[in-house]
Amino acid sequence: MDRETLGVETGAPTADTLAMLERAEGFLRKGEYAECIEAASQAAISMPNYFRPHVTIGLAWWRQGDMLNAAESFATSALLNPRHFDSCLYAGRAYMAQSNYQAARKMFEAATNADRHSTSCRVWLAHCLQSLGDFDEANNIIHSTAAQLDWMLPKNKRISFQHAPWFLNHIQIWRDKIQPYIPKNGKLLEIGSMEAMSTLWMASELIDSHGIVVSADIAYRDSYASNIRASGLRERIISIVGSSVITIPLLLAGSFDFVYVDGDHSPEMAFADGVNALLAAKQGGIVCFDDYKNQNQDTALGVDTLVQCFGQNIDFIHEGYQLIVRRKSDSLVVDFPNNPKLASNMQWREAIERSRVQDFSALGSGQLAFSDG
Ligand SMILES: C[S@@+](CC[C@H](N)C(=O)[O-])C[C@H]1O[C@@H](n2cnc3c(N)ncnc32)[C@H](O)[C@@H]1O
User: Could you tell me the CA-to-CA distances from 155 to 18, 143, 147, 151, 247 in Å, in that order?
Assistant: First the structure.
């Protein structure tokens, strides 16, 4: 319970302050940021100890991409109300954007105190500690967060990570939305293995010793290799090295129960990997696209174009930070988007045809039908 809820120190906000704040939030919703900051600043002046106006001001700066001012506003709010989780988390993230890792650490620790079970906050804290070079403490956080999510494998201290453990954020959704579709002897494919965090979760949680994970990456990292060795799950994992546009079409099309697309997140590559992932998935197989809602990347442009082209072949399972779909048809029918800009700039058709040609050479039979309609 925060200080506002308790009615301590801040006192109850007056009707006038609330009205000013409401106006400010209205401006925020409409994207009128200067007006929002003006109105929220008046609310802050009228009640200097009240944290909420600073949250609104922070959001207005955040949405304009001004992380310096956003950090200051959220940090002020966090100072006034250290138990306000969002203020601490957003302040930490805004400090991270400025590479101010010491300040970010304090904020993420405060956020973790406000909500001990928030996975996303613990993931940010681990990432921040890695940025500070404190890999032991980062791994402690990663291991305890995995354990909170009932994933015990990383408790093995020889499994360790040097890069941000974003995958932990997805575990709960994957349990709900993906796991029910995957047989224990399933055949799984991942594009983008990094340090094997997602690889190991798939190998330990989605399948048993009768299943297999094919993990593809353009690089083969020492940390990937040592984590696989330490996991005791080596027998369940096949590693492929090389660019996915070359390696994935060589795999048997229509044969995977699950494909995780988490490689190069540029729109063109997300699109090309997506085509190959749909081809690799069997009928009823699941395909998950990472970073679909990542504001800093244009991955969604590639994935949305893929959906325009292949929409009639898929059912939607989940749309959030990741997009999860299910291939419903045996053969894939392609609709080209009627958007000439996309067609000329991104050369979608060429990408599809390249995939198809490679698919033909691997399969010796056609799977795609084209409808230009
Ligand atoms: C976000 S990381 C994958 C994280 C991993 N799936 C996890 O959750 O633990 C993206 C990975 O894609 C790999 N990658 C980038 N471009 C690639 C390409 N063209 N082909 C294959 N892998 C690629 C990178 O080397 C990197 O390891």
Answer: 48, 5, 7, 9, 33
Domain 167-371 has CATH 3.40.50.300: no
Is residue 348 within 8 A of residue 342, CB to CB? The reply is yes
**Topology of domain 3-116, per CATH?**
1.25.40
Coil vs helix vs strand at 363: helix
Going from N- to C-terminal start, the domains of the chain cover 3-116, 167-371
Q: pLDDT (tens digit, 9 = 90+) per residue, 40-88?
A: 999 999 999 999 999 999 999 999 999 999 999 999 999 999 999 999 9
Whose C-alpha lies nearest to ligand 1, atom 16? 264
Distance 193 CA to ligand 1 centre (A): 5
pTM: 0.89
What mean pLDDT value characterizes the chain? 89
Q: How far is the CA of 219 from the centre of ligand 1 (A)?
A: 8
Kindly give the distance from the C-alpha atom of residue 274 to the centroid of ligand 1, in angstroms, as a whole number.
14
226-240 pLDDT, tens digit per residue, is: 999 999 999 999 999
